């Protein structure tokens, strides 16, 4: 008996907004990614679009399940994300899930599926189509440390602020987001 061909669903494009939680004013990116994107690749898309350096562990929390780098010897480790595609977990517009980066600083991102679109021929994906504000520096101490950094930027001459300001370059601007730079970083994914 001949083997039946597996029918694959048509590739779609997800318009996704990734927002850093517990931060004011908001920091976010709006992305276009294909439905066949694996979770490890989506992790790198978020890393590059946001401006993170990929120096820490991460986990996706989706419908009460955790996906990440699995340790088969640790029963508490997340499920293996390697073969999971977005099409397996995204089933509707308006769906939300979490992406957590750096368990120490605990950067929690809300991932919102804004739209499910048809694939446009001739377009390359992933794309960042909009965003607001610069990504916090790595190892700044999570949202509380980032808030301290923003306050230190307001009065850099104070002695207590000098060490905290060493984390960032002199020209770092928390309000700046460069869309073309984000897309350039996405070409490496």
Describe this protein's structure.
The chain has 189 residues and is α+β, with helices and mostly antiparallel strands. It has helices spanning 39-50, 86-89, 142-154, 159-165, 179-186, and strands at residues 12-20, 28-34, 58-62, 65-68, 79-80, 96-101, 107-118, 127-132. It has a domain at 12-134 and 178-186: MM3350-like (Structural Genomics Hypothetical 15.5 Kd Protein In mrcA-pckA Intergenic Region, Chain A), CATH 3.10.290.30. An 8-stranded mixed beta sheet has the order 5-4-3-6-7-1-2-8. Helix 1 (39-50) packs antiparallel against helix 5 and helix 3 (142-154) packs across helix 4 (159-165). The radius of gyration is 19 Å and the shape is globular.
Task: Classify the helix fraction into a percent range.
Answer: 10-25%
Query: Can you give the mean pLDDT?
Result: 91
Instruction: Show unreliable segments.
Output: none
Radius of gyration, in angstroms, nearest whole number:
19 Å
Strand fraction: 25-35%
Structural class: alpha+beta
CATH superfamily of the domain at 12-134 and 178-186: MM3350-like
Instruction: Give the helix tally.
Output: 5
What is the second-level CATH architecture of the domain at 12-134 and 178-186?
A: Roll
Label the overall shape: globular
CATH uppermost class of the domain at 12-134 and 178-186: Alpha Beta
Domain Plasmid pRiA4b Orf3-like: 12-180
InterPro entries: MM3350-like_sf (IPR024047), Plasmid_pRiA4b_Orf3-like (IPR012912)
Protein name: PRiA4b ORF-3-like protein
Organism: Desulfatibacillum alkenivorans DSM 16219
């Amino acid at each position: 008996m001949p083997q039946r061909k597996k029918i694959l669903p048509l590739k779609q494009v997800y318009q996704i907004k990734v927002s850093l939680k517990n931060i004011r004013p908001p920091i976010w990116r709006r992305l276009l990614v294909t439905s066949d994107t694996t979770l490890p690749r989506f992790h790198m898309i978020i890393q590059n679009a946001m401006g993170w350096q990929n120096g820490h562990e991460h986990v996706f929390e989706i419908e009460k399940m955790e996906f990440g780098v699995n340790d088969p010897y640790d029963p508490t480790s997340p499920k293996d994300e390697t073969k999971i595609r977005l099409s397996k977990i995204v089933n509707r517009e308006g769906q939300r899930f979490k992406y957590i980066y750096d368990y120490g600083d605990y950067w929690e991102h809300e991932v919102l599926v804004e739209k499910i679109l048809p694939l446009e021929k001739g377009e390359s994906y992933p794309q960042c189509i909009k965003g607001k504000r610069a990504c916090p520096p790595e190892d700044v101490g999570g949202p509380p440390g980032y808030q301290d950094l923003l306050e230190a930027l307001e009065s850099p001459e104070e002695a207590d602020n000098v060490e905290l300001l060493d984390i960032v370059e002199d020209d770092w601007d928390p309000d700046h987001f460069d869309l073309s730079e984000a897309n350039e970083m996405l070409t490496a994914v």
